[in-house]
Amino acid sequence: MTTAPTATPPVTKGGRRGTRRVNWTFMTVLSLAITGYFVGQYATGSLQSLGARHVGLANNYANRALPVQIAFYTHIVFAGLALSVGPFQFVRAIRRRRPGLHRWIGRTYLVSIAFGSVAAFVMSFVSEAGLVGLFGFGSLAVLWAWTSYRGYHAIRQRDLASHRAWMIRSFALTYAAPTLRLWLGLLIGVQAVAGSHATGQQMFDNAYAAVPFLCWLPNIVVAELMIRRRNLPGLRLSPSTRQERTLLDGPHVAR
Q1: pLDDT band, very low/low/confident/very high, at 131 (cuts 50, 70, 90)
Q2: How many domains does the chain have?
Q3: What are the counts of helices (DSSP H) followed by strands (DSSP E) for the chain?
Q4: What is the pTM of this model?
Q5: CA distance 147 to 162
Q6: pLDDT at 15
Q7: What are phi and psi of 173, to 5 degrees?
Q8: 216 near 173, Cβ under 8 Å?
Q9: To the nearest 10°, the Cα dihedral for 49, 55, 60, 64?
């Protein structure tokens, strides 16, 4: 006797919304946790004292020129701010019911990236990862600024669909901060499980050499998949035409 196969119930709109809510919560919690840790660890002392204790990247910047140290602290503050407010620009309830708040979140996010990306570009020239860090983190800084500008330009043109797509790309690059640390943990763990005889610092250095590109390239791929799934405008180098502009969720980021 055979049993007829049971049909798999289709994913409902409510189910998709629930999945998105769980994903958003995880993303936000991790963003806030990384921001608190990232900023907090460098607020406990000078770069020299932190470097002597091998805290984060302090040792690499402890004896750098003053402009580089200023760029380092500028990046910490403004990248942390962008990471902490970024998730809230995607909250539909805020966009629809509190458009003024949504605009201020957007402004804070974009101003933070304006400072954070320039500082990150300066830092890329003295990266511990050498030339890989220069090109990997330097490219990230340029694309971070460019995607954010495209998002701002789109909303100025009232192209809400393109605005939403570019802001997804922008935050995917902002999210390089958490993914960098996730990759570091994974790569260090792989070395430890493989029985590496390297010291802890050597395992960190090996892992850090891989993350300048690894921390953001997969993020962009995921962002493009999300954009396609939401039927938003695909990647293009020039703004979309007026005929392609679509109103999505009511008022968006203010000009």
Answers
A1: very high
A2: 1
A3: 12, 0
A4: 0.83
A5: 11
A6: 63
A7: -75, -35
A8: yes
A9: -30
User: Tokens standing for 254?
Assistant: 């203010």
In whole angstroms, give the CA distance from residue 173 to residue 121: 14
> Residue 99: pLDDT above 70?
yes
Whether 78 maps to a domain, the answer reads yes
Q: Would you say residue 157 has pLDDT above 80? A: yes
Kind and range of the H or E run holding 223: helix 217-229
- Nearest Cα neighbor of 249 from 234, 221, 230 is 230
- Convert the pLDDT of each residue in 12-49 to its tens digit: 555 666 777 888 888 889 889 888 887 888 888 888 88
Please indicate, yes or no, if residue 252 is contained in any of the structural domains.
no
Q: Give ∠ CA 74-223-73 in degrees, rounded to 5.
A: 5
Closest CA to 152 of 119, 111, 101: 111
For helices 176-193 and 200-208, give the axis angle rounded to 10 degrees.
Answer: 130
Banded model confidence at residue 71, pLDDT cuts 50, 70, 90: very high
The range of the structural domain enclosing residue 80 comes to 24-238
- Element (DSSP H or E) covering residue 191: helix 176-193
Residue 89 within any structural domain of the chain: yes
Q: What angle do CA 206, 212, 218 make, to 5 degrees?
A: 110
Q: Give a yes or no: residue 251 inside a domain.
A: no
How many Å apart are CA 165 and CA 154, to the nearest integer? 10
Residue 167 is which amino acid?
Answer: M
CA nearest neighbour of 120 among 68, 84, 81: 68
